[in-house]
Design goal:
By secondary structure, the chain is of the alpha/beta class. 23% of the residues lie in helices and 21% in strands.
Length: 635
Amino acid sequence: MLVNMGCKVFEISSLSEKESWKLFKNTAGDLTEKRELKSLPKDICQKCGCVPMTIFTVANALKNKRDLLQWKEALRQLKRSSPKNFTGDMSRAYVSIQLSYNYLRSDLKKTFLLCSLISHQGFILDLVIYAMGLDIFPDIFTIEEARSKVYALISELKDSSLLLNDQTNDSFSMHDFIREVALSLAKGEDHVFSVRNEMNWRWPSEDEQKICKKIFIRDSTITDLREKLECPELELFFMNTKVGDSHVEIPEDFFKGMRNVKVLDLTRMKFSCLRSSSIPLLTKLQTLRLDNSVVDDIAVIGQLRTLKILSLQIGQLTQLMLLDLSNCQRLTVIAPNVISNLHRLEELYMRGCFVLQKTGGLNIERRKAILDEMNGLSYLATLEIQFNDANIFPEGLFSKELLRYNISGSFDEDGTLRTLRLECNSINWSENFRCFKNVEFICIGKLQCIGNVLNELERESSSQPSSSQLKHLHLHNTPNLSCIFNSTNCRDGVVFCNLESLILLNLTELKNICSGHLTKESFCNLKIIDVKGCVKLENIFSFANASSLPQLQTMKVESCDNMKQIFAVERGENENNNEVIDQIKFYQLRSLTLNFLPHLTSFYSEVKKPSTLQERWQDELDTPILLSNKKVWFT
């Protein structure tokens, strides 16, 4: 059934009574059979009107409620009339979501309402920024604590079916209808004024302004910008224009009537003169974002002594905890000692910021000095920076381990993994690596001593099997690299259990990807192998047994002139061949590409395990097994 609410249209499907009761019972659990509840579960299910969303939401809210009075109260609320904008099945769905909302704790309610005000696919970082600015968590004083708290709350809201499970841990989304219900609740309970994707709309009336606590103008056309709003209770003000619209100029006195604002978030705005604007009057402001806005002189921001989070640039803001300079392509200068004076800074974002680039306005000495200043920030836990000159890196890059980072010499991917993306030929990186042992993504070219770094990375985790967190390793154009891993230095020969992709390009001196014997636990999560232009490489891996690489999905080997077999499995003189190897099975392999391998004789070969050092140098292949042999299975 389709129900029209103005310009909003939602599809509400229906179930039969039997299907409805089955869904309710499966969701609520064994409590539905509890004798003391009598007919309450079926009565509540009936009130849900055979609407799946309503049934699932209500049953999920009641699944841990054992008190008879709680079930009676749920039935009473479902019988209660709903807001006039919702009728029929939509009315029942509204009440069910409101019921689930009513069972939430105070901090969950505040977070849920904030989620509804953020974009369709919201980011955890936005919630953290707003929560810190609004003091939603009175017992939390650091960004890291707030982030952990928000992650936990989002998880609870997903368990309550009020948020959808998203593809990444750093974002969330909400069903359109649940968002409409949440916005209705926010308007009534939290005095929120919200406009989204509108061309024609009106500001709240004078009476509404007096009680309004939050204003969100998102992705809407802004033509009538008043001289000022009189909102003495306002705590949060968000406004951006439609993408493609010209920047909107903010009147000087616009913020005079909202002096209690704690969070001010403006995107694609224009200030004719920030110094003479009314922003300095916001003495309680804790979060300020001026993303993609046109500002002239930001020195006036230094007067905002209560500011904790700033997304643009800085002044004498000694209490600042988060600084976001992402995509500030016009920012070419940061004055000396500005970064180092941010003693409380926990998170620094500078991806897409040109201040560290050769093309920026700073010479190499000043760019080095900025990194030195970062190195002295004792609370720094999250760092995202981009650069195109590896010579600016100081020795002993960072003095402590970062929890999250994306340090990149390129401007392509933007991910959520702890990332090192470097290309340089003048750094002995092993001297700088000690604070990046929790790295998840390494993409490196032309780097000296990278083999030592990777051995050190795995050796550090050898006392705790599988503790190496590296998931993706991409190496290219790295000279003098003959071996990447040495498993003899690792516990039980186990290396990189969590690695998912291995990409090696143009490593012209590479003879072994891994020296020593690999156990079946090594590379057990590897999904992608891509090797190209490694002209001295004879095989990809040499295993102690053939039951390795159970997760392999894609393999590509090209232009490796000396490649003789893809895999080798070693056996001892006294070992029975049938015991050592039966079949190699690639259950997950979906793509196999072998190109320009002139000396390739087999996909897999058994290799006699040498008993002496001399024999190790004179290994002879016993039995080459071609792709068509029954001992190699592709399912």
